[in-house]
TrEMBL record:
Organism encoding this protein: Brassica campestris (Field mustard)
Molecular functions per Gene Ontology: glycosyltransferase activity
Main location per the UniProt record: Golgi
Record's protein name: Glycosyltransferase 2-like domain-containing protein
GO CC entries: Golgi membrane
SUPFAM superfamilies from the UniProt entry: Nucleotide-diphospho-sugar transferases
Amino acid sequence: MKLELVHLADENSQLTLKTRENDRDRDRDRDRDRETEASCHLLGAGQRDCSILWWEQARAIVVVPFFKFLVALCLIMSVMYFVEVMYMGIVVAYVKLFKRKPEKVYKWEAMENDAECGSKSFPMVLVQIPMYNEKEVCEQSIAAACKISWPSNRIIIQVLDDSTDPASKELVRRECERWSREGVNITFEIRDNRNGYKAGALREGMKHSYVKQCDYIAIFDADFQPEPDFLHRTVPFLIHNPKLALVQGRVLSEGEK
């Protein structure tokens, strides 16, 4: 009986030891888990701190200066717009108050024949008419240019034909010959290429020797029909205003003429 009690006591003590060991193992596992969790929390906090620090540095170096530049640019544009509005307002108010018109700004006097010099008192004018397959309007435009009221010995009509259509080219040539027979100083110029197109034709026309004697140049498109007094109304602006380089006329429709 005593022996059995001893065995039971030993078994109970062994169970108690195992239970304690198991408890200690569980405690160690819990402590290890807590340490791991704490280290993870510390790592996450460190990453967040690094991200915040990086963003603050980027904002200070890049973002803030960029937005400051945009603000300064907007201020400059606002000032420029304000100055422009003020300038336009002053100009409009000045025109409204003093009623100054363009024709009063520049000097203009009608041209008259000089008793001593005769037609030589008129400047020499070159009229350039560039054309390209304009058989529908070439006759009207050439005729209108040839009918301009100006001393015949003080004007040269230069027709610059870049037509690729043989029929159009022949029609322009015949029209120029017809007006030449009537005493008009007209020339028919062609070239073997179309370099520069319209501008190239005008530039090529300026290379002819007879152009050197001309004082002014008038350019009409192939579909323009200038009024006979066109030069009398425009050339005086150039004569009496030496700083003026160009006079442009308004194109009128058939109903406005």
